Amino acid sequence: MKATWKVMAATSAVSLFSLSTLAMGFRPAAARHSAVIHKIGVARRPALTHKIGGTLNLLGGPNGTWVDENNPFAPGASNTPATYIVYEPLIQWNSANGHYKPWLATSWSWNKAATVLTVDLRPGVHFSNGMPFTSKDVAFTFHMLKKYPATDVTGLWTYLKSVSMAGSHAVKFVLKKPNAMFFYYMAQVPIVPASIWSHHNPVTWTDPHPIGTGPFEFHSFSPELVTLTRNPHYWQAPKPYLKTLRIPAEQSNTTTVLALAENKLQWSGTFSFNLRRSYVNRDPKYNHVGLYPNGLDVLYVNLHHYPLNLLVVRRAISMALNRRQITNIGFSGYSPPVTNLTGITPGMAKTWSTPTLNRKFSARYAPVLAKRMLLKAGFKAGPNGVLKTPKGKPFNVSIDVSTPYTDFVAASEQITQQLKRIGINVTIQSNSANTYYHKLQLGQFDLAVCWAPWGANPFFTLYPFMSKQFSKPMGQYATANFERYYNPRVESLGAQFLATNVHSKQVLLVHQLASIFATQLPVIPLTYRNTPIEYSTKNIGGWPTPANPYWNVNEGNLPVLTNLYYK
């Protein structure tokens, strides 16, 4: 497994920094009504506090060799890790304090009806080629998503009525009606220069030499190493302090942790079965590991493949899983097993769930009962302990894994053994990281362990998991609903949630969505995901600390990268 750090939601193609996760339990700013949501003045550029220079070696996690694609919008693209460092969003979410942080935007405000959002842009920002950043670039980026619907992976234009420039440094977004998801997704769209992108098709262009507003600019590419250098035009000057970023390709969690232990890497989000022994104890004064809540790990089940499309089969699979064993062996105990099937994480439960809901849908381990359910549903005993389906075929399925993610491999091995005990024969299919994720998006799998979409509240997990908005026909790239679950009731509840700003109503709607999720099991929850993040303070300073928790090192790499410096 790798760290899931990204500027967009987990609904788009995997990259080094994937899924900018939001703090648990906070409402999206779009759900609030009137006046100015956030406003700051334009600060003077600070004096130089750290010397300029030094190199940081970083890696979100093993991804195999890099692919020379930097287009953050191309469906199914295998982006290089440069993409979300070169390109920046309008706004960042800070889960350390639960607030949105102005970035390329300085302020934003809603009208009283919560249908018109005006975003003020930061003056004095330039792209790395020296061209000024203006409202034209923002408007162009969003209009591009409308012109090429395949690039609109979060469905922004299902909410939007129009986007227009309101002067050289302001943009007006007009919604068809109030929408509680819009602000979250809008805020994280990477802004690209109109002067360059207007000449290319964003569905197919690889963007070999990306030009953005980010703190570092693309320098060189090879399948084994991506290098970025300090952007001399960066708007937070004198930041960034580091001169060079080096992002090597690694083939597995094992080799990545070894590189960390040898200080060949100073920042990563890589799993190891004993990070204290393999990393921290190698240099305990400087080597640090933190665990950061990051949603769920789940078992995707392809609902277009028989007999996995049968509800009794998914319920039996869930009951056959010893989640405690899966987390202890597969995830080294970092990610605790889910206690219920609602899809609501513990940090959100106090606000968004109830003890009754949690008890009603508890995650039950009962393999004997699971097999009995299948036999009652028409499955028959077959040779070698493998059940026969009601159609008379052996119950054979495969589980796809990404070989570099040793935790997912170990968890899949446990699942394979546990399902065998109830008569399901599971074969492990090993893949590269990119192939694994592409197969999920295209629906070319039976079973697969993966992370879940996550956001400011459980709706950002439950709705993407179950809504047709986040799915596609088989063979086309889905953005989150990989299992291809369809339920008109979900669409109705989702529309009601998106249309209301009343928190109490939103909670009740989440309860109904959670009930559908727990009873229908479109995916099967496994663990409450904790992402381990490794970082070294030996040569690099400026990390968030308990005394200065300005950001979480698990998410949104840009706020941290701009503060790091070489000692």
Written account of the structure:
The chain is of the alpha+beta class and 567 residues long. It folds into two domains: 29-213 and 538-566, Dipeptide-binding Protein, Domain 1 (Dipeptide-binding Protein, domain 1, Alpha-Beta Complex); 294-530, Dipeptide-binding Protein, domain 3 (Roll), CATH 3.10.105.10. It is 26% helix and 20% strand. It has helices spanning 83-86, 135-147, 182-187, 194-197, 253-261, 275-278, 311-320, 323-330, 346-352, 355-360, 367-376, 406-420, 433-442, 459-466, 488-499, 503-520, 557-561; strands at residues 36-39, 55-59, 91-94, 99-102, 105-110, 116-121, 160-165, 170-175, 216-222, 225-230, 244-248, 267-268, 287-301, 396-402, 425-431, 447-451, 523-536, 540-541, 565-566. The strands form four sheets. It has a ten-stranded mixed β-sheet, sandwiched between helices. Strands 1-5-6-8-7 form a five-stranded antiparallel β-sheet, covered by helices on one side. The longest helix is centred in the last third of the chain and has 18 residues, at 503-520. The protein is globular.
